[in-house]
Design a protein that fits this description.
264 residues; 3-stranded antiparallel beta sheet; alpha+beta
């Protein structure tokens, strides 16, 4: 049988699996290579670069809320274990998905919904730990695992938003009631202070009136010597009435411009 030398060019960060009549022969590193076809052939090319697999898993929390968990797993093929990566697993992506589903569905049900949001890093750490331990046997290195999304059902989201909105409204109403209370207390304090000052003014006014009356009585008693008691009182009230009406006319004349005449 005649063989042909075929040229194979392996790119950087790749390795090629070479077989002789279906039997593993070796690995080709990056660069220029010749193989004897049809005795030899490149069975597969494996990338050594970091790859990412996005997985979405649905599970239930401790408080019976169904959530969809989005996980991103970053991995790469180990150069020294490329044989295991190619021959020991038929579908590495499906294998990684199975491990992720197992970890998520055994971790999230131990937490309620709020705890699952808070402990996303813990969930991601559990996934990475389990994958790193299991996938290393198949020639894969797990670089990182991230919980990229944790989304409850739409009805649950709506209920959570309504609860938060009600809580905010309750806090706003409480603050408004406190503000109204302060306003009423301050208004009552201001009214009490105003009444107190008004009372002080009235008391002082009455004190002044009484003092004036005392002085007037003393003056009339001096002027009305020789008169009877009734005469002195009549004279006093006449003078007091004149003073009152004079003050009244002065206060109303500026507003109504009305002339008042009184005869005594």
């Amino acid at each position: 049988m005649t063989s042909l030398f075929c040229v194979e060019c392996i790119r950087t960060k790749e390795v090629a699996v070479v077989e002789n009549f279906g039997d593993y022969s070796g690995m080709l590193d990056p660069g220029f290579h010749c193989i004897a076809w049809p005795f030899q052939n490149v069975a597969a090319r494996l990338s050594l670069r970091i790859q990412q697999l996005d997985i979405r898993c649905e599970t239930k929390t401790k408080d019976n809320v169904f959530v969809a968990v989005g996980v991103a797993v970053q991995y790469r093929v180990l150069h020294e274990a490329a044989y295991d990566a190619h021959y020991r697993l038929t579908d590495p992506h499906q294998q990684i998905r199975s491990y992720v589903f197992d970890v998520v569905r055994s971790t999230v049900p131990k937490m309620d919904l709020d705890e699952s949001f808070i402990n996303k890093n813990q969930i991601a750490g559990s996934i990475r730990q389990q994958l790193a331990q299991d996938m290393s046997n198949y020639g894969y290195e797990i670089m990182s695992s991230l919980v990229t999304d944790l989304s409850p059902d739409a009805g649950v989201k709506r209920s959570m938003n309504e609860i938060n909105a009600s809580k905010r409204l309750k806090e706003a109403a409480s603050h408004q009631a406190d503000a109204d209370k302060v306003k009423q207390v301050k208004a009552a304090e201001a009214e009490a202070e105003a009444r107190y000052l008004s009372g002080v003014g009235v008391a002082r006014q009455r004190t002044a009136i009484v003092s004036g009356l005392k002085g007037s009585i003393a003056e009339f008693e001096q002027q009305g010597e020789g008169r009877s008691e009734r005469g002195r009182l009549g004279l006093f009230f006449s003078r007091t009435r004149c003073v009152f009406f004079r003050s009244f006319l002065q206060s109303t004349a500026s507003r109504r411009k009305t002339l008042w005449t009184f005869y005594f």
